Amino acid sequence: MKESDQKAAKKISFRQKEPTKCPVCSFEFFREEMLTGGGRLIAGKLTDELRRLYDKNEKFGKVYPMAYVLTVCPRCLYTAYPKDFGILTDEEKKKMQGTAQARINSVKKFFGDIDFREDRSLVLGAASYLLAVDCYSFRRKEVAPTFKNAMSSIRAAWLFGDLAREVPEKPYGKISQFFYKKSYAYYMQAIDLAQTGGETLEAAGHIGPDTDKNWSYEGLLYMCAILTVKVGAQEPDLAKRLESFEKTKRFLSRLFGVGKSSKSKPGALIDMTRDLYERMNAMIEEWNQQAGQPDQTE
Q: Is 282 exposed, middle or buried (0-12, 13-18, 19+ CB in 10 A)?
């Protein structure tokens, strides 16, 4: 095999032939896409946060599919999921233009000099989700910004956590925890919006939380619950903590009931829901005893 063919065989991604033009600053760049097939991804276990882990590939190394999802303008750092990138209103465009320098400063503060014209890496992947959470904060409800910020925040938490393990001397662990808290808040908001019609699942599209599977509304309910256990349990006010747990437990009851009545629902999610429900009951029982309240768990 020729050397050029060997290099091509080891490629993880490619550049689109047609340039993408940033609607904010008019900069043109060639979007990077991840190649599929060829044994690039070796799927591992599914975590209790619905994250799909991938085993290290001897040929391609560690691959992060999440890192390739977002479209980022290398100049002004405007960031969005591909279908949303070019559909800015005039008002959104002005907001993105007005906050461009803040985005540039933020990325420089956490990562130093990085360039989104380079091939995506774990660092660029984490930075892209940090930017997405910032940019979607200025988007209109028609693109379901809350749903996408919930998904972007949990992905940021995951990738910053990965970075913290690779570079423990940098404050990536604290940033990961920050995004866990953000994701908890966004997921709770997303459920309220889904129930009131403030934002729709149709507009949200793929809401992950990971790239391999769209768990849809059931996934939203589950993510609210798992993040309540992992983040909401840190609430210092016992009464507020119990209130959030009881509310989220009702979400799980709904999901558990749907799963039992429909064989089309994913069995893995139902099993995880059952385990989480029992875990939440145990925590509520312990806190009720601390508060001197009668046990109301079912």
A: exposed
pLDDT at 293: 60
Angle formed at CA 143 by CA 138 and CA 147, multiple of 5 degrees:
85
Q: What is the pLDDT of residues 5-43, one digit of tens each?
A: 444 447 889 999 999 999 999 999 999 999 877 677 888
pLDDT digits (tens, 9 = 90+) for 241-283: 988 998 888 888 877 765 554 555 556 788 888 889 899 999 9
CA angle 116, 117, 123 (to 5 degrees): 35
The answer to whether the beta carbons of residues 288 and 242 sit under 8 Å apart is yes
CB atoms within 10 A of CB 243: 13
Separation of alpha carbons 143 and 64, rounded Å = 25
Of 57, 48, 33, nearest to 158 by C-alpha is 48
Write the burial class of residue 269 (CB in 10 Å: 0-12 exposed, 13-18 middle, 19+ buried).
buried
C-alpha triplet 127, 33, 39: angle, nearest 5°: 105
* Domain locations in the chain as residue ranges: 12-214
Both tokens assigned to 9: 């065989």
For residue 24, give both structure tokens: 């904010």
Q: How many Å apart are CA 146 and CA 188, to the nearest integer?
A: 10
Query: Over the stretch 99-134, which tens digit does the pLDDT of each residue have?
Result: 999 999 999 999 999 999 999 999 999 999 999 999
